[in-house]
Design goal:
Layout lengths: L2 H16 L11 H5 L10 E6 L2 E8 L4 E6 L11 H8 L6 E6 L13 E3 L2 E4 L16 E6 L2 E6 H7 L6 E5 L2 E4 L2 E2 L10 E2 L1 E6 L5 E6 L3 E2 H11 L5 E6 L4 E3 L4 E2 L8 E6 L2
Length: 267
């Protein structure tokens, strides 16, 4: 068992003792699931229990943080993880708040959907059909422009797109769309993995969540709508889901990843 798996196992054991992390994955704690996510000053990344599953929720606040995407090193090779991201950040390493894998990729580690980094489109929007989570409809785009951070379905992004995109990553499926769960999900289906995703709330904050134990699509979608109060949420990936949280000293090192979202403290 690696260090991350050990931490997750300990977290789950503690939660079981406290009445959470039900190994049967039965009905969750309704009061905990419906409790609003706390507002006001807090750490950027917070451990929570949602419906008996331990999660970590990291907040990017536009008044305090900037969001970037990173994919390639200085030699043009895919980073594939946080170990190679660190030297790529250079002197900006001290401003890093957290980083997380940010979208699906091919065998080389390159994005399979839209990817915009520092205003440059490196991969075009992918609206083709196919199999796998990325192609489960609707899929979507997490992006930033002059007006803030947003999540839109791929079709809506294509229809409304204008210039001035600072960053964008396409993934799928949408977990929540216009306040409704994805119709393809069971309430708590049998497919359960470590998963991560992103949403943007009504105040323009971006919430990045990663499960610390396997979770179903349905339960994970409910986290974003019912606990984080987001009208739209996008799945980023599963199994390879990884978080680098500087304050807690957590840096997951598992399977190679693709695009990475980097949240930095403003100067």
């Amino acid at each position: 068992m690696n260090r991350v798996a050990s931490i997750r196992a300990i977290f789950c054991a503690i939660s079981l003792f406290a009445g959470g992390c039900d190994a049967s994955n039965g009905p969750g704690n309704a009061a905990e699931a419906s409790r609003p996510y706390p507002t006001g000053k807090r750490d950027s990344c917070e451990p929570i229990i949602f419906d008996d599953v331990p999660m970590t929720v990291c907040t990017a606040d536009p008044t305090q943080h900037v969001i970037e995407l990173a994919e390639l090193d200085r030699e043009g090779k895919p980073l594939r993880g946080f170990a190679r991201l660190e030297p790529a950040l250079g002197s900006r390493r001290d401003r890093l708040v957290f980083a997380m894998n940010a979208g699906m990729f091919d065998d080389r580690g390159l994005p399979i959907g839209l990817y915009v980094e520092q205003g440059r489109e490196l991969q075009s929007l992918n609206q083709r059909g196919g199999t796998g989570n990325f192609y489960m409809k609707p899929n979507g785009v997490f992006y930033g422009d002059d007006s803030g951070w947003h999540i839109a379905t791929a079709s809506a992004f294509a229809a409304r797109r204008t210039g001035g995109i600072h960053f964008a990553t396409q993934s799928g499926p949408m977990l929540v769309k216009d306040g409704r769960y994805n119709a393809a999900f069971d309430e708590n289906g049998p497919s359960r993995y470590i998963r991560n995703g992103v949403c943007v709330d009504g105040e323009g904050r971006a919430f990045f969540a990663i499960s610390n134990a396997p979770v179903s699509f349905g339960k994970f979608a409910r986290l974003f709508r019912d606990r984080l109060n987001c009208p739209n949420a996008l799945y980023l990936d599963g199994t390879v889901s990884s978080l680098w949280e500087t304050k807690a000293g957590r840096r997951d090192a598992g399977a190679p990843i693709g695009p990475i979202v980097v949240v930095m403290q403003k100067r």
